[in-house]
Amino acid sequence: MDDILILGIESSCDETAAAVVRNGREMLSNVINSQIEIHKKYGGVVPEIASRYHIGAINAVIDEALDAAGVTMGDITAIAVTYGPGLVGALLVGVSTAKALAYALEKPLVNVHHIKGHICANYIAHKELEPPFVCLVASGGHSHIVYAKDHIEYDIMGVTRDDAAGEAFDKIARVLGLGYPGGPKIDALAREGDPYAIDFPRVRMANGSLDFSFSGVKTAVINHIHNLEQKGESYSKADIAASFQNAVTDALCEHTIEAAKIKGADKIVLAGGVASNTALREKMKSKADIEGVSVLFPPPVLCTDNAAMIAAAGYYEYISGTRADMRLNAIPSLPLE
Ligand code: KG4
Ligand code: ZN
After folding, report:
1. Alpha-carbon radius of gyration of the chain
2. Between 20 and 30 A from 117 (CA), which of 123, 217, 236, 271?
3. Residues with Cβ < 8 Å from 239, sequence gap 6 or more?
4. How far is CA 203 from CA 217, 235, 258, in A?
5. pLDDT in the model for residue 261
């Protein structure tokens, strides 16, 4: 069979990214133009600014991805693009560019769900990985537990009822004055703190639901800091970061391992920006090990937003017959099912 080369394009948030992946598994290039430095001064992503930077960056990012892969547009089998969920203006830049390229070059166009992309980053990182498995997708916008039935079909087993895990990390980092994005900052500071210093709440939904809720722990951390500040007491930011991270990762691990038990799955796969959290990776491995379940995750660069994951998901969609036409539109709140 001839090799299938997918050009992936991702612009759903604050990364303009393009990548070339061979047969869904082999990453030939992965170019990521991050806008973090631009949005830092606002403490979070400003959608209108993000769209403008995507427009300025996208053509050069695609050229660089082709060059780095040592291929030309003519070698590409199909173009895969994130069409949701995400910021509408940001998504539209990738979708419009992919449509223009597909039309002008007469290449197939494949629409990819951003969360499915995060999951498929694991196919690049682990060449032997095959579904079924249970996957925790935890990012700045989403916290899902899904059961991967095959490469493109997923059952949702749990979602967040309020904040996404990464959103909670970002908010607490802001309260602690650590800057944006908060996840990596808390991850680093927590290593110097005591994870058992403060017992922040772990919320468990009734009726055995695997859904998450992170607004309670977030409010508890904010109240804890306010109380100490009002009393004029000093406190250890590292202890707060470590205790907060301990509460969030406890919930993520407990629900995900329970999902694996329900499905009788022997593999747990982590995906999304929060999957690069060192405490989460270690805790999930040690807790799952007791249950005889193995844990896999991508390297950090494939956890946060990138286009290689979109090309990997695009490959499996492509071989399953998924095609988009020139009516493809950005869908900001695209559901997983
Ligand atoms: O997957 P991603 O790049 O974007 C979305 O699709 O949302 O995830 C970004 C999120 C941010 O909230 C960031 O703070 C979080 O992932 N994050 C982390 C770490 N690295 C990134 N959270 C905890 N620990 C980390 N090491
Ligand atoms: Zn993402």
Report:
1. 20
2. 217
3. 193, 194, 197, 198
4. 8, 25, 15
5. 98
- Return the ligand 1 atom nearest residue 303 CA: 1
Let me know: does 85 contact 141? Beta carbons within 8 Å.
yes
Which of 12, 115, 169 for mutating ligand 1's site (highest number of atoms within 8 Å of CB)? 169
- Distance of alpha carbon 313 from alpha carbon 212, whole angstroms: 26
Question: Does residue 84's CB lie within 6 angstroms of at least one atom of ligand 1?
Answer: no
Q: Quickly tell me which residue has 């249950």 as its tokens.
A: 291
Residues 24 and 127 sit within 8 Å (Cβ to Cβ) = no
- pTM (2 d.p.): 0.96
Burial of 271-282, coded b for 16+ CB within 10 Å and e otherwise, reads bbbbbbbebbbe
- β-pairing, 294-296 vs 267-271, is parallel
Evaluate whether 131 touches 149 at the Cβ level (below 8 Å).
Answer: yes
**Distance from C-alpha of 40 to C-alpha of 18, rounded to nearest angstrom:** 23
Centre a 10 Å sphere on the Cβ of residue 238 and count the other Cβ atoms it contains: 18
Which of 243, 157, 251, 246 shows the shortest CA–CA distance to 204?
A: 251
The secondary structure of 6-46 as a DSSP string is EEEEE-SSSEEEEEEEETTTEEEEEEEEE-HHHHHTTTS--
**CA of residue 327 to ligand 2 center, whole Å:** 24
Paired residues of 21 in beta bridges: 6, 27
Mean pLDDT across 161-187:
95
Which residue matches tokens 């994870």? Answer: 195
Residue-wise pLDDT for 208-250, tens only, equals 899 999 999 999 999 999 999 999 999 999 999 999 999 999 9
pLDDT band at 337 (very low <50, low <70, confident <90, very high): confident
The residue ranges of DSSP E strands in 172-264, in sequence order, are none
Phi, psi dihedral angles at 102 (to 5 degrees): -65, -40
How far, in Å, CA of 300 to CA of 273, rounded? Answer: 8
Q: Residue 105: which of 81, 72, 82 has the closest Cα? A: 72
